[in-house]
Amino acid sequence: MLSESFFASTGGPPLSSRTEIARDVGIYSYQLHPTLSAKSTFKKSSTSPNCLAVSDSHIFAAQKDKAHVHVYSRIRGNQEALIPFQEKITSIALIQDVLLLGTAQGRLILWEICTGRQAATPACHVQAITCLAATSYHVLTGSDDSNVHVWSLPHLLDLDVRADYEPDRSFSNHRAAVTSVIIFKSTNPETSMCISASKDKTCIIWNYQTGEALRTLLFPSIPLCVCLDPCARAIFVASEDGSVFAVELFGDKALLGPRSEGLSSTAVQVTTPLGVAEADDGPASCIASSFDGTTLLTGHSKGKVLQWTLASDGHPTKVADLNSPVTNLVFSQPMAEKKPIKIHTVVKPTRAERQYTFTAQLETSLADETKFSRVLNSKGFPPDVLEAALLGLEQSNSGTSSGQGADEANEELWQIINEQRALQQLTFQKYVEAKTPH
């Protein structure tokens, strides 16, 4: 059984004077499966929602109401760097080796952690960026101004990007501040869907490459955080009244696809929650789904981390009590993706230089790939190898006479057969002589 671990961060002062929990710890690492256990802690951090990002080697935590990002090394278990910025950081997200940062002035900052290169957009949001979501090609920014902007990530990282670069499109169907944005990991334009939650008590499913609204979900209270099932079959929403909802997208009453009922403009009222947290736990400010899709975690304002089992009656169990408002939950990959590089030390961002040094450890060989290794590591036979084999077979057949080649092969076979027959007769004769009585 694979082990699953998650990170939880807190923001705010301790809720009580309990001594079993260290006062200066702000980030916790837990193993959830196969057995629940605490793994490590990281000190001197206080984060707001959507301000924690985790890679295979580092943890990035944007500090609450500050223009600082703390960088922690997962390998060494300590704080590696404190990165200052000119504006308060209100949300962060990590995509490959690029850290995305949303500011209180509505600006998007991109930081290449391997080179230290920093790029920034104009203040396209009139209020703070509250949430970020990204793929390898697009970045989505949600803001308190109720808008969601869609950006092209390759254009933002272009060395010759324009100073007045604007988003590719904007989604303005919400009527209040955007609280959360999640994105489907798909590159097909027809399935490039995302979900945005807002204080107008709605979650809207829409296509971020076309801007088309596909379905609107209405909730009885404000949805504070949203996460997606690992197979994109359902979304999980935690609302302000402590309720946790599970909304199936392709069930018996499908909301999307050819089996969906009703028009896309028809809003769907979501009333039945998966479960409701106790009043003493407070509302959930963060939510995360395990990679097998059977377990849901929520972090609450009263310091509790609750576990919801989707197959049960909806009553949660306590995973941890951190004695401070839990603001972020992030699952780490159970099987880390193999990458050609490994980052040991991040490079601090700078905008003054035009030449940058790439700092990382190479995980693959720089030697030229041989034909044997390429065929061995490929799925099936590569097309060029098959073509060469077919051409070689055709040339060998055309270069020799078919009749002459067949006669020679037959003569060799008959010679082998006759030799085997003679050996068999000699062996049988010795056997008969041995059995004959004298």
From TrEMBL:
Endoplasmic reticulum keyword on record: no
PROSITE patterns (UniProt xref): WD_REPEATS_2 (PS50082)
SUPFAM superfamilies named among the record's database cross-references: WD40 repeat-like
Pfam families per record: WD40
PANTHER family: WD REPEAT-CONTAINING PROTEIN 18, WD-REPEAT PROTEIN 18
InterPro entries: WD40/YVTN_repeat-like_dom_sf, WD40_repeat_dom_sf, WD40_rpt, WDR18/Ipi3/RID3
GO biological process: DNA-templated DNA replication; rRNA processing
Subunit structure: Component of the RIX1 complex, composed of IPI1, RIX1/IPI2 and IPI3 in a 1:2:2 stoichiometry. The complex interacts (via RIX1) with MDN1 (via its hexameric AAA ATPase ring) and the pre-60S ribosome particles.
Keywords from the UniProt entry: Nucleus, Repeat, rRNA processing, WD repeat
Residue stretches of each WD repeat: 171-216
The name this protein goes by in its record: Pre-rRNA-processing protein IPI3
Domain of life: Eukaryota
Cell compartments where the protein resides: Nucleus
Family statement drawn from the similarity comment of this UniProt entry: Belongs to the WD repeat IPI3/WDR18 family.
GO terms for cellular component: nuclear pre-replicative complex; rixosome complex
Keyword Manganese included in the entry's annotation: no
Record organism: Pseudallescheria apiosperma
Role this protein plays: Component of the RIX1 complex required for processing of ITS2 sequences from 35S pre-rRNA.
Main location: nucleus
